[in-house]
Amino acid sequence: MRPDAAMRVLVGGGTGFVGRALTQLLRSRGHEVSHVSRQGGKDRITWEELSRSGLPPCDAVVNLAGENVLNPFRRWSDAFCRDVISSRVETTKALAKAIADAEQPPRAWVLVTGVGYYCPSPTDEYTEDSPGGDFDFFSRLVSSWEAAALIPGSPARGVVVRSGVVLGRGGGAISQMLWPFRLGLGGPLGSGLQPFPWIHIRDLAGIVCHALESESLQGVLNGVSPSSPATSNGTFAQELAAALGRPALLPVPAWALRAVFGAERAVMLLEGQRVVPKRTLESGYHFIFPDLPGALKDIVA
Q1: 116-129 pLDDT, tens digit each
Q2: DSSP string of the chain, one letter each residue
């Protein structure tokens, strides 16, 4: 990183699971990072301060904010749906407005959304140019979320990273699965045949950093590993069990997932999309963990 290329980066939701990994990476590359979060503090402003005082001086803005959709402790209710939407769409609108109103707008504006934009299918493969975004709650959520980021006429370069299931230590999907698998009680979800679009947390942070540092990059990037189109939920269960030296014999029946998460959320676990990171690879990003066994070995080590 050239000293003159160091950026001041403002990260919405920067204290969460992905935000912590991104902050660590950006700082290691010489960038300054501050956060927008619910509570203020050192190198941090609140969402209220952002709305009131506008954008602090910065060269780039990233939004990672969003209530965990698969929080097993929250019932799938109208109130939870509203939280899921507002934590994504309203935070994105607030940052977009602050960018639009800034006297010195940032050079880059990166939003991380999800592959829920694409319709679940056991066979179809999706690149960044594939249609989607209008067939269920989650796809429409991604459409509204991405639409909220648009700033007509802004000089800020816009990038959207559509992320798969984020795998990493100390949070995300793995944290809820590790104990049953460690105890030899893990297994595929439902039939296990559904595609499992995944990415290692270091690669998701890496793609966002790549988007910030690549001056000509804009548009949509799929945030999934290159081998994820060939990964099924059953394969994932077998590989995680193998990484832990345990069997993966006990499938979790679909009815049990519907009982815990509600029918609408259970779809996220029982169905999946084959997503290809075509533009991500073409843009010159090199994956640290392109294959599942290597990614899982790193996480459970």
Answers
A1: 999 999 899 999 99
A2: --GGG--EEEEETTTSHHHHHHHHHHHHTT-EEEEEESS-BTTEEEHHHHHHH-PPS-SEEEE-----TT-TTS---HHHHHHHHHHHHHHHHHHHHHHHH-SS--SEEEEEEEGGGSPP-SS-EE-TTS--S-SSHHHHHHHHHHHHT--TT-SSEEEEEEE-EEE-TTSHHHHHHHHHHHTT----BTTS-SB--EEEHHHHHHHHHHHHH-TT--EEEEES-TTGGG-BHHHHHHHHHHHHT-----PBPHHHHHHHH-HHHHHHHH---EE--HHHHHTT---S--SHHHHHHHHH-
